Amino acid sequence: MSARPRLLVVSAGDETLRGYCLEQVATAYDVVLLTSTEPAWEKPYIVDHAVADLHDTTELLAAGRGLAARHHLAGIVTWDEWHLISTARLARALDLPANSVEVMRACRNKATARSLFARHGVPSAASVEARTLPEATRAVSSLGYPAVIKPAAFASSIGVIRVDHPEELPAAFAFASAGASRSREDTGVLVEEYLDGPEVSVECVTAHGVTTAVAVTRKHLGPEPYFDETGHTVDAADPLLPQVAPGAAAAVKALGITDGVQHVEMRLVDGRPRLIEVNARIGGDMIGHLVRLATGIDLSQAAADVACGKTPDLTPTRHGAAGIRMPYPDASGTLAERHINHPFATHTPWLQQFQWIREIGDTLLLPPEGDLFTSRAGFYIVTGRDTAESPNASTPPPTRSPSPPGQTDEPTEPAGARHRR
């Protein structure tokens, strides 16, 4: 029997974008997996598993207790946004160290988070809850235009939209309400002050109430008035880190988080950080992988270490930059053809990975009909010594729209290669 600590992971997530988390954790821990579907790609990285409906508290607790009876568990962790609360609930039942259910609820609910930010003096955005269009109208009249309408408890920028003029408000409220209706926790809508400035996230690790900001991620957004993220860049030498780290740590503390990894989103308004939200898990879109490529710091390992009461190693061992971009179409349509110049990609050292996530014949839908899950065709990851050297770290890739039936969409090189020449 292995002498390594045994870690309970709740929901390993999607192999394409979250597989690296499980792979990295399994290098130091024996992983016991609680999942909603029978494991497939996860099998090489786990020693045992149980399948349960992770949204059903009775099933979740029964499956978790079954695993705890078979294994001496050192800790519990999830990097899945949708299971933060259920993981905290299970941790309480198994008497494993973790943030409380109440703290995770505060992280998941933007209205609660805004209230806590205000109470603790953390600069964020003015925010008003609105259950009806008349309430939203009164809120925008008070806050002024432009304003942001968003679900109170969802993720991935789904249902989030900017409103610039009164005549846009009914459609915007309907769009946000449709996104909010997909939440299992709160179907309310918020009307918020628009924070005008570049968007970044701060990747943090908190242990025993002390938060360390390890990296800044610069964001690339899709077409307005929506807030879909189309790319991220991490530079180990980013001069923003000391500027934004205090605000990120203050936000984490305001929510009552004492342990774990956090993805703290903010905007820089007139050069000063204003909080958007705190996500109590590793950032999506492979941001944890980018941090490792740029700095050498392993956020997946850090999350596991903190969950098991160990001190994480946050010493940078690399000093470079890494970026990810998601080729987006210019308009909704059908993906008729796709192509990668494999010889070019194979002999290009700065191109770490290029992967399609949609098949020929798939329909790509942009907001308002779709969201980031329906609009992305794939992604590519690049590296360099700094942001300036990383191809397309700050410049949009030359993507093409999906083609109507009978036409083709055929980039002949990995997106961004033309900028390199």
Question: How would you describe this structure to a colleague?
Answer:
With 421 residues, the protein is of the alpha+beta class. The chain folds into four domains: 93 residues, Rossmann fold (3-Layer(aba) Sandwich), CATH 3.40.50; 68 residues, 2-Layer Sandwich (Dna Ligase, domain 1), CATH 3.30.1490.20; 125 residues, 2-Layer Sandwich (D-amino Acid Aminotransferase, Chain A, domain 1); 102 residues, no CATH class. The chain is built from 13 helices and 18 strands. It has an eight-stranded antiparallel β-sheet. The longest helix has 14 residues. The N and C termini lie far apart (54 Å).
- The assigned structural class equals alpha+beta
Chain-averaged pLDDT:
89
The number of helical elements comes to: 13
Helix content class: 25-40%
Do you know the CATH topology of the largest domain? D-amino Acid Aminotransferase, Chain A, domain 1
**Which CATH top level class of the largest domain fits?**
Alpha Beta
- Largest sheet report: 8 strands, antiparallel
- The gross shape turns out to be globular
Strands across the major sheet, in which order? 13-12-9-10-11-14-18-16
CATH architecture identity of the largest domain? 2-Layer Sandwich
Question: Span between N and C termini?
Answer: 54 Å
Question: Could you outline the blueprint of secondary structure elements for this entry?
Answer:
Layout: E1 6-10, H1 15-25, E2 30-35, E3 46-51, H2 57-70, E4 73-77, H3 84-94, H4 101-108, H5 110-119, E5 127-130, H6 133-143, E6 147-151, E7 161-163, H7 169-180, E8 189-193, E9 199-207, E10 210-221, E11 229-235, H8 241-254, E12 260-269, E13 272-279, H9 287-295, H10 299-307, E14 321-325, E15 333-334, H11 342-346, E16 351-356, E17 363-364, H12 372-375, E18 378-384, H13 417-420
Parallel strand pairs: 1-2, 1-4, 2-3
Antiparallel strand pairs: 5-8, 6-7, 6-8, 9-10, 9-12, 10-11, 11-14, 12-13, 14-18, 15-17, 16-18
Helix pairs in contact: 1-10, 2-3, 3-4, 4-5
